[in-house]
């Protein structure tokens, strides 16, 4: 049973079992959500930014260091348009999550890539939401604040746009942090529907994680 509980604690970021993790907006403000995007920037990210700009919505982008170096102008645009840019490791390779030293280097390397763009972030989201003891040690070593989610869109698994949209909206409560990915075409389509839904239902979208 202990092994089962421990394994659950590693893979369910909401439990804060090994790592203290913020997975909803503080105070659970009524009809207020945060839109967060992982794994970017990508060639599709400018289209995500266009949509967010159209709806005057500010998001949080958890960026991968390699992608930051590949698309620096996109990251600059994120910051210029009021989005929050945060750390999501340098390579997003599963093997580098297994060892605290390797993950610490990944986080620091990404911080360096952001620093070249005059961006500093206290926020980190572990790949796959894994919060194992090595991840905990790396977060302590880099003095990061771990950010999770309480609505996981599963857009990397669910490609049907209707199913994806309804999965998100039926989970909406108050103060949700929603996880999506800004590298997937179907997510781009769903984002427009989601933004329209949130607007029509008087939701406020914020990217203040404090």
From TrEMBL:
<dbReference type="InterPro" id="IPR002509">
    <property type="entry name" value="NODB_dom"/>
</dbReference>
<dbReference type="GO" id="GO:0005975">
    <property type="term" value="P:carbohydrate metabolic process"/>
</dbReference>
<dbReference type="GO" id="GO:0016810">
    <property type="term" value="F:hydrolase activity, acting on carbon-nitrogen (but not peptide) bonds"/>
</dbReference>
<feature type="domain" description="NodB homology">
    <location>
        <begin position="31"/>
        <end position="206"/>
    </location>
</feature>
<dbReference type="InterPro" id="IPR050248">
    <property type="entry name" value="Polysacc_deacetylase_ArnD"/>
</dbReference>
<keyword id="KW-0378">Hydrolase</keyword>
<dbReference type="Pfam" id="PF01522">
    <property type="entry name" value="Polysacc_deac_1"/>
</dbReference>
<protein>
    <submittedName>
        <fullName>Polysaccharide deacetylase</fullName>
        <ecNumber>3.5.1.-</ecNumber>
    </submittedName>
</protein>
<dbReference type="InterPro" id="IPR011330">
    <property type="entry name" value="Glyco_hydro/deAcase_b/a-brl"/>
</dbReference>
């Amino acid at each position: 049973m202990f092994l089962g509980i421990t394994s659950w604690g590693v893979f369910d970021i909401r439990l804060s079992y090994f790592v203290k993790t913020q997975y909803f907006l503080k105070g659970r403000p009524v009809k207020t959500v945060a839109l967060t995007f992982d794994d970017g920037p990508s060639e599709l990210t400018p289209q995500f930014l266009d949509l967010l700009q159209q709806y005057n919505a500010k998001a949080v982008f958890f960026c991968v260091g390699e992608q930051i170096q590949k698309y620096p102008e996109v990251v600059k645009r994120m910051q210029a348009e009021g989005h929050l840019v945060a750390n999501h490791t340098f390579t997003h390779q599963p093997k580098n999550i297994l060892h605290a030293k390797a993950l610490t280097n990944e986080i620091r390397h990404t911080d360096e890539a952001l620093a070249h763009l005059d961006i500093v972030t206290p926020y980190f989201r572990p790949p796959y939401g894994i919060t194992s003891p090595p991840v905990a040690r790396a977060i302590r070593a880099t003095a990061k604040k771990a950010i999770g989610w309480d609505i996981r869109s599963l857009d990397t698994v669910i490609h049907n746009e209707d199913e994806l949209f309804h999965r998100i909206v039926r989970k909406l409560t108050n103060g949700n942090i929603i996880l999506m990915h800004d590298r997937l075409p179907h997510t781009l389509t769903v984002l427009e529907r989601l933004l329209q839904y949130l607007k029509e239902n008087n939701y406020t979208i914020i990217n203040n994680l404090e």
